[in-house]
Amino acid sequence: MAEKYYCKWCGSNYSSISNLTANTCSRNPTKGGRHELYEGSEKSKYTCKYCGTSYSSLSNLTANTCTRHPAKGKHEAAL
Predict the structure, then answer these.
(1) Nearest alpha-carbon partner for 77 in 4, 11, 3
(2) pTM, whole model, 2 decimals?
(3) ∠ CA 66-72-78 to the nearest 5 degrees?
(4) Which residues of 4-27 are buried (b: 16+ CB within 10 A; e: fewer)?
(5) From CA 65, how far away is CA 58, in angstroms rounded?
(6) What is the pLDDT of residues 4-58, one digit of tens each?
């Protein structure tokens, strides 16, 4: 089974880290920023490190706003 590398901002996955980081990410808080590697493991559910809300996919978690995020941003996955 091929390994997948996920973006910590949007949950997109790529087959290599170089392909992941070569592309821009619309959810990266830095305007025009690139995908950044999610360094946690692949899980059956992902939990926000600020509020504890859980989702079944990293992309669903990072798509929603977190009321406890210090910069009023999106949920961020706990490792």
Answers:
(1) 11
(2) 0.87
(3) 45
(4) ebbbbbbbbbbeeeeebeeeebeb
(5) 13
(6) 999 999 999 999 999 999 999 999 988 779 999 999 999 999 999 999 999 999 9
Please name the residue that has the structure tokens 């590697």: 37
Give the distance from CA 42 to its chain's centroid: 11
Q: Which residues, at least 6 apart from 43, have a Cβ–Cβ distance to it below 8 Å?
A: none
Amino acid at 42: E
Tokens of 48: 């926000």
Q: For residue 74, which of 41, 57, 50 has the smallest C-alpha distance? A: 50
Kindly tell me if the per-residue pLDDT of 1 is higher than 90.
no
Stretch (H or E) spanning 58: helix 58-63
